[in-house]
Structure formats: structure tokens, C-alpha cells
Amino acid sequence: MLPAEMVGGVSAARAANLEVTGEALSTFVKRVDSALRNLEGSAGDPTRIGAQRIKPSSLNSGSAAAFPEAHALYLQYNRVHEELTSLSKTLHLQIEAIGIAVRGAYVGFDNLEEEQRRRFQLIQTQLKQIEGAGGGKQRTESAVSGGL
């Protein structure tokens, strides 16, 4: 049972501290938009990361059996590359969703443009799919460092 001075699991004093002004939200939206633009223009952009692939023949001119260490390196590179691509895409989507959510907090979610509401829902769906594809679990350190 919550104490009487608690509202929604937060004390009244803390709830008052959580209230923000429109100016503070606008400043935060600008910072989120700037972070998103910086990500899109950097080497961390999901499209740029996705394009950085190598071929098995880059490390091994023969069969995998002829030089198994090179093949293992290739497999690890591809695994890490896929993880980085997924992380970059997730980061991009989350930053975009934060920007829409902050705008919604400022003007009210019902007052957002229909396209922004649709985009927010699409982002949520994509993030759930990405999480589901990864099993929804974080890897343990032993699972990440295993392999080579």
C-alpha cells in the first residue's frame, strides 16, 4: 500500500519536480532532432553500417577447412556487424520516437498530426519486432565473448 502523500507511485513533491514548461520541451525536442540529424550524417547511420560487409574470400582464398581461423574471424565479424547494424537502427528509431513523444507531451498526443501518430506507432511496432528477433533477452558476457 502506498503512503497517502504518494500519487501514481511518486510523491507529490517529486511529481511537481517532473512538471516541465513548454520552453523546456521545445529545447529538448531541438536537442533530440539534432542528435537524430547527427546520427543520420555519421558513420553510425544504419544504412552506412549495413553497407560495410566483407566476403569470405577476403580472409580466406580457399575452403574454410584450409584456414579455419580466418573462417572463424569472418563469422565473428558478420555476427558483430549484424549486432551493430541492429543497434544503430534501434538507436535511430528510439531517438525519433522520443522526439515525437516529447512533441506529444507538449501539445497532447491527440493534437499531433495524424502522420506523426502513425509514425510513432510504426516505430513502436518495429522496435518490438527487433526485440522479438533478438529473443527479447540481453546476452550474457560469456555468450558475447565466446567463439574465437
The proportion of residues in beta strands is: under 5%
Strand order of the largest sheet: 1-2
β-strand number: 2
Distance between the termini: 51 Å
Summarize the helix and strand pattern as letters: EEHHHHHH
Main sheet overview? 2 strands, antiparallel
Helix content: 55-70%
User: What is the number of helical segments per DSSP (H or I, 4+ residues)?
Assistant: 6
Total tally of structural domains: 1
Structural class: mainly alpha
Low-confidence stretches: 4-8, 139-148
- Overall body shape: elongated
Average residue-wise pLDDT: 75
What is Rg? 22 Å
Give a structural overview:
This is Secreted protein. This protein has a two-stranded antiparallel ribbon. The longest helix is centred in the middle third of the chain and has 40 residues, at 68-107. The model is unreliable at 4-8 and 139-148 (pLDDT under 50). Helix 2 runs antiparallel to helix 4 and helix 4 (68-107) packs antiparallel against helix 5 (114-133). Strand 1 and strand 2 form a beta hairpin. The chain has six helices and two strands. By secondary structure, it is mostly helical. It has one domain (21-145). The chain has helices at 12-18, 22-40, 46-51, 68-107, 114-133, 141-145, and strands at 6-7, 10-11.
List keywords for this structure.
6 helices, two-stranded antiparallel ribbon, 66% helix, disordered C terminus, 2 strands, 148 residues, mainly alpha, elongated
